[in-house]
Amino acid sequence: MLGAFGAITDINEQHRAEEARIALAEEREHMAATRAEEAEAQRQLEVERRRAQELLIDVTSHELRQPVSAIIQNAEVVRTNMKGLRDLLHDCQRRKISYLPTERMLSELEDDLQAMDSIKQCGLAQG
């Protein structure tokens, strides 16, 4: 006796599930790349801010000897920090995302207030 046995299996569902897994993996990869780009941009911003803070420290050590120079340098520190904040907020607005200030940003705003106080004191010393 000769016979045959066969089975037919519908693998469409398995194929769709595999496509969904691939799409999810690609989406996760894209999100990871986006986060990496944002982290790099944030790192570069932090480097620029650190330079501005170093300038503030340098300026503060000289402000008693050079009040006019201190006024100019402190104003530049404040301007640099404000420009960075403006650019960051414009970027958030453009991308339609909210911004939660970091501890570093709040610290830099405090540094800016101190720089403004130094500018005022230097101005008073000139008068």
UniProtKB/TrEMBL annotation:
Entry keyword Coiled coil: yes
Stretches of the chain forming a coiled coil according to its record: 8-58
UniProt keyword annotation of Coiled coil present: yes
Alphabetical list of InterPro entries matching this protein: HisK_dim/P_sf
A GO molecular-function annotation: phosphorelay sensor kinase activity
Domain of life: Eukaryota
Keyword line: Coiled coil
Protein name: Signal transduction histidine kinase dimerisation/phosphoacceptor domain-containing protein
Source taxonomy: Eukaryota, Fungi, Dikarya, Basidiomycota, Agaricomycotina
